[in-house]
Structures are given as C-alpha cells and as structure tokens.
Amino acid sequence: MRRRLSIGRVVLLIAILGVLVWVILRPDEPAYRGKRLSQWLDEYNRAGALEKTEPISEAIRAIGTNSLPYLLANIKHVDSPIKARFFALVGRQHILKLPFYGADPYRSTSILALHALGSQAAPLCPELLKVAQNPTRHWWGMMSLLAIGTNALPTLAKACQSTNVQVRTEAALMIAMMRAMPPPWFSWGWAKAPLNGRPLFGLGYAVSEEDVREMINLLKDPDPAVRRASADAIGLYTRPPYTGVAKAAVPSLIEALKDAETNVKSSAGETLRKIDPEAAVKAGVK
Predict the structure, then answer these.
(1) What pLDDT, on the 0 to 100 scale, is given for residue 189?
(2) What's phi and psi for 97, nearest 5 deg?
(3) Strand-pair partners of 201
C-alpha cells in the first residue's frame, strides 16, 4: 500500500513539474488587445452561453490566420501517459483545486474558433483531413471540418474515400448536416473542469431526420465515394426515431443498386437489407 502511494506521489510530482515547464516554455502566441490566443479561448470556456461568445469570436477573427498553427496544435494534442496519469490521480481527490483545467481544455474552444474564422481556417483542411482519417481521433477532425463550414466540403468528400467505414460514414453525415440546415451545425454545452471547477466548453451534435433525408439525396451525388459513404451512413439510422425516414430511403437505395460503382451497389444492398429485408430480396440483393 505504501509502495503504491509512493509511486503515485512520484507520478504526481513529475506531472506537476511537466505542466509548470510547459507553462514557462510554451511558445509565444498571437495576441489581440493584450490577451494571448489561449486567453481568448479560455473566454469561450467562461462564456456560459453561445450568444455571449460573439465578442470573443471577433477577437479570434482579428488575430486571423496567425491563430491557425496554435488551433491545429490544440486539436491534435494528445497527453503523454504521465500527464494522463496525473490528471487521473488529481481527478480522484476533491480537496486540491489546481489552477489549470486538465486534459483538452482548449480543443473544443479551438474548434469553435475555427467556426469563427470560417473561410480563413480553410488552409487547415489538409491537416484536419489527416486527423479525421485517424480511427482514434477522427471525431475531432470531423468536428473541426464541420466547424469550418462549406469550405471544407471538398475535404469531407475525400474523407468519404476512407476504407474505414466509421470515418466515411461520419464524413457523409457532416456533408448532409451542412446541406440540411443553416450554421451552426453543432450543439454545445458547458460542464465543470475536474481539476479547477471552472466552466469548460464542449461540442457535440444531434442527428435529425432532415439530416438523414439529406443523406438519401446524397445517393445521387456525382462523387461515387460520397454515394457509397451515404449508403453506409443511412444504415446507421434505421431505428426510432429514424424509422420513418429510413423507410423513405428504400426507393433510392433500390435505384442505387443500379449504380455503375460496385462499392456503391454493395453498400446500398447492405443498408436495404437492414431497412426492408423483403424489398432487398425482391430487388435481387444476395
């Protein structure tokens, strides 16, 4: 027991020193009106409501493309094993409140900053595609591309070419969400950070029936990768509350069985079997 406590204390001490070194040695950040970029991102954490974030977004736009390397670094950041262990140890106690947030304090806020920048953030799309294609990190890459908006559509179409079904279906969903409704396409909320108890901004999204309808429309997209990814993605939304709209996809899926691309036909057939097995048999799906 004493040995475990000793090891825990050593890990804690090393991690604290590591965080302090990072704070002291971190590179200079772009600033606006006397505040560093990270301070403006922290303002997003503290805002508490999206309607209160516009002054922060104005500051991000004023910093402009100088912010892009820092935002990308935040989105791609992965904690070291020691640092992750440190956050886990400190998170178990409720006495000590440390001055920093813990894991990923600026990832969601950096994605919100991409949304504020809009087309100015488009140069990051090739790097964000790499993140989106990473099976363990793809969600953050997809959310980043979604935040940038329609300038990221060609990049999302490339993500639809992935051999990883999770990556390509997520990309098809992002495209559908952009086409189905006006921005912002994501949802948001605030929680309390485990280490300091301060507000912490977080991103997410909810899939609507309209999003699924738009994926059905994407079965006619000129890009076969988008058609295939959409056929795969529709198959993820066959249960309530999507049952009705999934049934409405049957005629389009039957039509997709005539597609010139084998992959599109195969994905359409698989999804048709999930939604309407009888219709799949009648259509000759094996």
Answers:
(1) 84
(2) -110, 110
(3) 190
Burial label for 224, CB within 10 Å (0-12, 13-18, 19+), is: middle
Across the 286 residues of the chain, what is the mean pLDDT of every consecutive 10-residue run?
Answer: 50 52 58 94 91 95 97 82 57 53 77 96 98 90 96 97 96 96 84 70 92 97 98 96 96 97 97 96 91
Q: Helix, strand, or coil here: 90? A: helix
| pLDDT attached to residue 50 | 87
How many other β-carbons are positioned within 10 Å of the β-carbon of residue 49?
8
CB 171 within 8 A of CB 159: yes
Distance CA 238, CA 231 (A): 12
Measure the N-to-C terminal CA separation of the chain; round to a whole number of Å: 60
How many C-beta neighbours within 10 Å does residue 262 have?
10
Of the candidates 115, 93, 105, 94, which has an alpha carbon nearest to the alpha carbon of residue 46? 105
Q: What is the pTM of this model?
A: 0.83
Closest among 212, 222, 224 to 271, alpha carbons compared:
212
Domains recognised in the chain with CATH numbers: 30-76+101-204 (no CATH), 209-282 (1.25.10.10)
| Beta carbons of 220 and 213 less than 8 angstroms apart | no
Determine the 3-state secondary structure of 229 from DSSP.
Answer: helix
For residue 123, say if its preceding peptide bond is cis, omega within 30 degrees of 0: no
Map tokens 């000129």 to a residue: 222
Contact 47, 56 (CB under 8 A): yes
